[in-house]
Design brief:
Strand content: 25-35%
Distance between the termini: 19 Å
Largest sheet: 5 strands, mixed
Structural class: alpha+beta
Number of helices: 3
Number of strands: 7
Helix content: 25-40%
Strand order of the largest sheet: 2-4-5-7-6
Radius of gyration: 16 Å
Amino acid sequence: MSNLQQVARNEQLQLAPMVEEIFTDLASLAEKRSITLEAEGDAALTGSDALIYRLLFNLTENAVKYNRPGGSVRVELAQGQEKCIIRVSDTGCGIPEEYQRSIFQPFFRVDKSRSRADGGSGIGLALCTRIAQAHGTQLQIDSTEGVGTTVTVSVPILSPDDLPAADADGKEQP
């Protein structure tokens, strides 16, 4: 997790196909919990395909896992002139206000009774935070207990000329 700044972030990414792939990957988990997956919009950005995929996957997987049976997860993508907006919303249990800053810390769990057997290691949102930072942004959370949670990522749109040069291995040069 400490070397994310060294990952090349110069790929041109179209996000709607990536979201569809993530929905396919999470279909069995969503079906098991009777969660509806919805996507809206599209956006493009310059970044790391692997890291942006992991960011979207982790946010969507959490939205499924911490949802109520029969709930829904919605991924909205919007293209602005200067930013790409990614919004992942669920109809789940929500996060108590006193924990909303802590959830991005490694190994933090709101529900201390959850174990690794329940899935996850407690580093998913910390990783998402680091990926967002590597792409020049941060995660914003809006959550209401008993109603649901929305995580928003506003990624600056950069041209390949705005990015640091990479060496032959794809690693950025200082």
